[in-house]
Amino acid sequence: MQTLHSAPIVLPVSADPIGDGAVLVDGDRVLAVGPRAELLAANPEVRERAWSGVLTPGLVNAHAHLQYTDFEELNSLDQPFHVWIGRMVEKRATFTDAMWGESTRRGLHMMLRAGITAVADIVTDPVGVLPPTARSGVGGVSYIEIVFEDARSWSESGRALLLERLASGPAGRALGVSPHTPYTVAGAVFADCVAIARDKGLRLHPHVAESPAESEYVLTGTGPFAKSMTEFGKSMELIRDGGSGLSPVQYLDKLGVFGPDVHAAHCVHCDPTDREVLRARGVYAALCARSNKILQSGQPPVADYLRENSPFGIGTDSLASTPSLDLLEEAAALRTLAVSQGYEADDLDRRIVEAATLGGAGAMGLADVGRLEPGARADLAVFSVPESESVTPESAYGALLDAAAAGTHKCLGTILGGTIVHRG
Ligand SMILES: [Zn+2]
Asked: In angstroms, how far is CA 162 from the centroid of its own chain?
């Protein structure tokens, strides 16, 4: 069954904007993208769905924890990251698999209502989280998280549990591996997680260089994370050895973690050498500027990433540390940050929208999402922007971000694998 989705402006992102454009969808795939008149002339019998507004690829969220959607109260704690994570651990202990499932479902609905059709989701409790995620049909990868592991707990139970979880994931959902951070996973365990993932051809997605406390821990083996890991009774090489003398990025690179099968969340505390390492290894950053602000972690150097052509996507992170699961709002915040850091080139709007689509796809190694072109998954989103009559194909990237920055954008429709799953 073919459908022609048309709109006054189509942003394929992987190609130039099209005025009075359309996307021909056959089943769950895009068949053609171009001017509406041309596609209608070639397919006169086709059923047309005429949208108003700006039609884009479904947005790709490069970093989330859908299971923490019901942890919204934690996003207003006004505490730094190392305090916040303690509260996370306390609240986690009160949740059951059924509650994780419910929380995940709410997160999936929020994302679909915001035009997000693929997600890099960190999964700490797969029994509750994976079934609703697989059922939703949302694209992307669910990364099974490894956290609070030293060599002993890993060999006693952690390693076997990871292998079991990777073997028993539900059909229809790609799995990956997420060794949480260099301060919650011992070095040897981190390296083993990477080896397991590579052996199975799975992608990796750790958190890297998020907070100043993480940088301190990796450099000197001290600070609040050293204190809490010791309290947890974990035996960590970096505490024992007085740190690595390196930044988080350079430490993980020395462990052999980075390659084109990895994307790293946050990458806030990355100096030019760190960024060069990430770029050289083909590692995308997933920037989550609003979460970093709430957790007082610092600002990701987005202007530098842009100037240096470092690859990056945009993530919302979880509702426990961000005000919404709306990726367009996240993208608008990142644009504001780039401007405040002195980025002035006129490609900014386009590149930020690319990061929210192509960037997330590249981060997960997916060639068929985040773009509208023949053969891509038929994942589409339609956004209304105020005064849409005055928006031209050239100004559409900026108009989308302006509307999101002002809170006046609205997702009019989300099409997932060719099916309309949200109509606003
Ligand atoms: Zn995260």
From this structure: 22
Domains, the chain, ranges and CATH? 2-57+371-423 (2.30.40.10), 59-363 (3.20.20.140)
What is the 56 CA–ligand 1 centroid distance (Å)?
Answer: 26
pLDDT tens for 199-234 read 999 999 999 999 999 999 999 999 999 999 999 899
Q: Cα of 265 to ligand 1 centre, how many Å?
A: 7
Q: How do residues 342-393 score in pLDDT, each as one tens digit?
A: 999 999 999 999 999 999 999 999 999 999 999 999 999 999 988 888 899 9
CB atoms within 5 A of ion ligand 1 belong to 317
In angstroms, the first-to-last Cα distance of the chain is: 24
Q: Please tell me the distance between residue 390's alpha carbon and the centre of ligand 1 in angstroms.
A: 38
Q: Distance, CA 160 to ligand 1 centroid (Å)?
A: 24
**Could you give the CA distance from residue 36 to residue 322 in angstroms, rounded to a whole number?**
38
**In angstroms, what is the span from residue 136 Cα to ligand 1's centroid?**
21
C-alpha of residue 381 to centroid of ligand 1, in Å: 25
Distance 5 CA to ligand 1 centre (A): 35
Instruction: Evaluate whether 4 touches 51 at the Cβ level (below 8 Å).
Output: no
**How far away, in angstroms, is 153 Cα from ligand 1 center?**
23
Give the angle subtended at the CA of 365 by the CAs of 367 and 324, to the nearest 5°. 95
The model scores a pTM over 0.85: yes
